[in-house]
């Protein structure tokens, strides 16, 4: 396969994922069908199936892309913050990324989470992400503080994603500030 052919194939796969995201945003997980994605992408059903053999394969690819975006966002925040040792650096990066991405595309995230919940294989990516973060935060002092910070962030995000609350504005900023103080205290044993 030539580089040009590979590039076109990758572009087509991304176009399909973009179309699947649009279908999810507009109609939720129930609307996500190969036919709907094909129509949104301007492709035949066979064209979609050539890249993604099933709806489950499409969901797996969407979850993988979302997790890659999340990892990249947190890594970028870690790089911007400069060398910050141990769990405090990761905690501060997670809070910085949360501040940047909070309320971003709640409809897509909600629909993707619901669609992924029906597929244990798709949830494996989320579980691995959580396990990686908890492992990196495990050395925080006092014991359990890193996990507490992670689950506070997760609770804020998931609560918003699932529509349990609509915290925003000054209230969200106050929470981000409290999370940032807690992250900064990781490893010191100090209380935020």
UniProtKB/TrEMBL annotation:
Keyword Repressor: no
UniProt key word Transcription regulation: yes
Assigned keywords, A-Z: DNA-binding, Transcription, Transcription regulation
PROSITE patterns, A to Z: HTH_TETR_2 (PS50977)
DNA-binding region: 33-52
Domain HTH tetR-type: start-end pairs: 10-70
Classification via Gene3D superfamilies: Tetracycline Repressor, domain 2 (1.10.357.10)
Record-given protein name: AcrR family transcriptional regulator
Organism listed in the record: Methylorubrum rhodinum
């Amino acid at each position: 396969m030539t580089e040009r052919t590979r590039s076109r194939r990758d572009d087509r796969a991304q176009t399909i994922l973009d179309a699947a995201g649009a279908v999810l945003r507009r109609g939720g997980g129930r609307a996500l069908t190969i036919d709907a994605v094909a129509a949104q992408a301007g492709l035949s059903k066979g064209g979609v199936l050539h890249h993604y053999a099933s709806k489950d394969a499409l969901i797996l690819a969407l979850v993988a892309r979302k997790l890659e975006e999340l990892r990249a966002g947190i890594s970028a925040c870690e790089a911007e913050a400069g060398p910050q040792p141990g769990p405090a650096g990761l905690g501060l990066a997670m809070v910085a990324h949360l501040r940047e991405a909070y309320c971003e595309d709640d409809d897509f995230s909600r629909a993707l989470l619901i669609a992924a919940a029906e597929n244990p294989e798709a949830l494996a990516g989320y579980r691995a992400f959580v396990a990686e973060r908890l492992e990196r935060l495990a050395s925080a002092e006092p014991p359990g503080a890193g996990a507490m910070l992670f689950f506070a962030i997760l609770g804020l995000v998931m609560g918003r994603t699932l529509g349990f609350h609509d915290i925003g504005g000054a209230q969200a900023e106050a929470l981000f500030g409290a999370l940032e103080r807690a992250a900064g205290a990781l490893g010191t044993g100090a209380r935020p």
